[in-house]
Each structure stands twice: as C-alpha cells, then as structure tokens.
Design a protein that fits this description.
four-stranded parallel beta sheet, 10 strands, alpha/beta, six-stranded parallel beta sheet
C-alpha cells in the first residue's frame, strides 16, 4: 500500500478529463495535476520540443513525491512516452495504448477512426498502436484542431461546432468506421454531438476512461495502490493563467477544481 499521489500532466486543461476518470475509478487515490498553460498548445510543436517540455514536467512531478505518472496529453504520449518511461523511476502511463486496445476490442469489422490534434495525427501513434493489436485493421485518421477552442469556449452544442464537426467527420463517415477514438482529451466533452453525427451504431472510445483502467492495473501490479478507505486529496498546478484554468477547468471536473498554484517552467 502506498498513499503517495499519482501525477497527471497535460499541455493545458484538457487532461482534466483524464483526471476526472481517475477520480471516478480510483476514489481513494490522491493526485497532483500539472497543466502547462504557458506553453499550450503542444499539437503544432516539434517532437523535440514536446519531449523537452514533458521531461521538465516529469521532473517537477517527481519532486512532489508522486508514485506514478499519467501522461494525459495525447501529443506528449505520442512524442515523449518512451523517453519518459526510460528516465522515470516510477511507472509512466500514456493515453494512446489504452485507447487503441479498447478500439480494437470494440470494433466488429476492424474499421477504426481516430480524431486528434495535428501533432497526434501526424505522429501516427494511434495507427501504430492499433496495428500492433490488430494488424489487419483499417485506420482512418483526421486532425480536428478547431475542436479544442470550441470546447474551451463551452460551445459543445453550438451551431458552429456542429458545422465544423460535420466537415471534419465526413471522411470517417464515408469510410464507414464502426469505432471512433477520441484522441484528444478535450473531445469527450463533445461526445453527444460526435455521437449524433457519426450515428448510434458507431462506438466512441474515450481514452481517458481506458487510461484510468490502465492506471488501476499498474498500481495493482506494482503494489502501489492507496490503502482502502484513504481520503484522497487533489492538487492542481499550472505554468500560467491560473484564473482561466479555474474558469475553464470547472467545465471539465466541476466543483473538484479548487485553487491552482502557479509553477513557471523554463
């Protein structure tokens, strides 16, 4: 048994959907969340820059005494997970592999769509992970960069959001995918809209939920789970603009989001 917190980080606010999934699945586990709000977005940045930023955040989280680290950012997972795992003394879990495994398990025909940021889609990380689990799967990918600002604006059902979503998703509808991976942590907040456009027969895969299950398994395998009955605490830190983080973050996890400390990283 280990009462130390789990570290969770993201390029900004979206990783709070993963944090929420962890809270719900592991209610006795404490967490420390870091959002790199000074340097968001990671999607358009080079792999080298993303790796450097991710290593800086890993170092800060380790200084907080975390027992495991969740890379809640799809772009960081795509570009930096291997490096983080090599350099970390504690388990590091990314969001791509769990989401890919769940998509393969859910797909009846092996026709899988993936939506994400430009960086995540360009990395081809989801396609590689899906093909490792099912080498004959057909993977259709689409970058949807405008979804992030729509979510942060709270425009989940706005006519503009529907217009943009229909444009983005049309190639996936034409490809007749039967499963769609939401490959960005912001996208679960658009689930009702995306489901309506894709149709009820298409299974939507929330990588956050699958990652929380992977975290639970890792803690169990490493004997790192918190004692049963432990009272969880949740800390939040950002690299800039704490007020906006609280304002927008409340849409992601509600009243759980209290004050966030500001930790500049350079």
């Amino acid at each position: 048994m280990n009462p130390s917190p789990i570290g969770i980080f993201d390029s900004g606010i979206g990783g709070l959907t993963v944090a929420r999934a962890v809270y719900e699945r592991l209610p006795h586990e404490s967490t420390v969340y870091f959002g790199d709000t000074a340097r968001v977005p990671y999607g358009p940045k080079s792999p080298e820059t993303v790796r450097r930023y991710s290593l800086e955040i890993l170092e800060w989280l380790l200084d907080q005494g975390v027992k495991a680290v969740v890379v809640a950012c799809n772009t960081s997972t795509a570009h930096a997970l291997d490096t983080l795992q090599e350099q970390s003394p504690v388990p590091v879990i990314g969001v791509i592999e769990p989401g890919a495994r769940a998509a393969v398990g859910a797909s009846a025909r092996g026709s899988i769509g993936v939506i994400g940021t430009a960086g995540t889609i360009a990395s081809n990380a989801y396609a590689r992970a899906i093909h490792r689990a099912r080498d004959v799967a057909l993977v259709e990918q689409k970058a949807c960069p405008l979804f992030v600002p729509l979510v942060e604006e709270g425009w989940f059902e706005h006519p503009a959001a529907e217009l943009i979503a229909r444009e983005y998703l049309e190639p996936l509808r034409q490809a007749e995918v039967d499963t769609l991976v939401l490959g960005c942590t912001h996208y679960p907040l658009l689930k009702p809209l995306l489901q309506r456009i894709m149709g009820v027969e298409v299974r939507l895969i929330d990588s956050g939920e699958e990652t929380a299950a992977a975290v639970e398994q890792a803690l169990r395998e490493e004997s790192l789970a918190a004692p049963v009955g432990a009272v969880a605490s949740h800390r939040f830190a950002v690299s800039d603009d704490e007020a906006r983080f609280r304002q927008v973050g409340a849409r992601f996890i509600g009243e759980r989001l209290g004050r966030a400390e500001v930790v500049p990283l350079d």
